[in-house]
Amino acid sequence: GRAAPAGRAAGCEGGAMLHFFLLVSRQGKCRLSKWYTPHPEKEKKKMIREVSQMCLSRPQKLCNFLEWREYKIIYKRYASLYFITCVDKEDNELITLEVIHQFVEVLDRYFGNVCELDLIFNFHKAYYVLDELLIAGEQQETSKKTVLKLITEQDSVCEDGTDKDMQ
Length: 167
Known about the structure:
- There is one protein chain.
- By secondary structure, the chain is of the alpha+beta class.
- Helices cover 46% and strands 23% of the residues.
- The chain contains five helices and seven strands; from the N terminus they run ββαβββαααββα.
- It has helices at 41-57, 93-111, 116-121, 123-133, 144-166, and strands at residues 18-25, 30-35, 65-68, 71-78, 81-88, 134-135, 138-139.
- Strand 6 (134-135) and strand 7 (138-139) form a beta hairpin.
- The termini are far apart.
């Protein structure tokens, strides 16, 4: 077989390794950004601006895959939010779209029909969901039920801690 790309374990060629995951509103406001490869803060802001503009300005009927720099941008719009990922050019677009969809489904079940306000006021929970699905930019958990169970357990631990603080 071919050698695994740098930063990826041999035998993991089937999945996609994300470089970043963005959640951007239709107005271009970044609501969530998770980076799996290091970049200086100034460069991250520039990348977010560039990628957001590319995705927001594209007509809806066009393909959700774009070549950008030495990467591929894969995005999907759900209601007023764009879920945007960046992967290597040789990575599988459909697997990446499935990761995006899984994240949206878990958010939907957790928040009960997630909306932009849920993500603004509970951004830490959105990050927690993403961290349960992806580790180091690679999908770790494919079971939505397992992710929801872990998040619910985490919520109860946090609530127990809050209850003790109030006493």
